[in-house]
Design goal:
Blueprint lengths: L8 H11 L3 H17 L1 H5 L1 E7 L2 E6 L3 H8 L1 H12 L6 E4 L1
Helix pairs in contact: 2-5
């Protein structure tokens, strides 16, 4: 008899995503969508645009005064966002 190697569906999906080069874009999309959850509704209301470029999350704000407060908590947001998606997706955040 042949011994079968069983794999979970999760492992098979992740293997196929990696093979097709789609894992990183999927993680980036999840991280961008997580910004309102991690930052909170109050901050998300003043956010107009969130995007990732070269492992840096760019967050455009409507209120310039909020930029200084968020910059002081930058490392906390990086850690929480990466933990949310379960992988090291970003290394820096820039507030514009």
């Amino acid at each position: 008899m042949f011994k079968q190697r069983e794999k979970s569906i999760k492992d098979l999906i992740l293997y196929n995503l990696r093979a097709q080069g789609l894992e990183t874009p999927l993680l980036q999309k999840r991280l961008v969508e997580a910004w309102p959850i991690i930052a909170g509704e109050a901050i998300a209301r003043y956010t107009t645009d969130v995007k990732i470029y070269n492992q840096t999350l760019y967050v455009r704000l409507r209120v310039p005064a909020l930029r200084a407060d968020l910059s002081m908590r930058r490392q906390e947001y990086i850690k929480r966002l990466n933990e949310y998606v379960g992988n090291q997706v970003i290394t820096d955040i820039r507030f514009n």
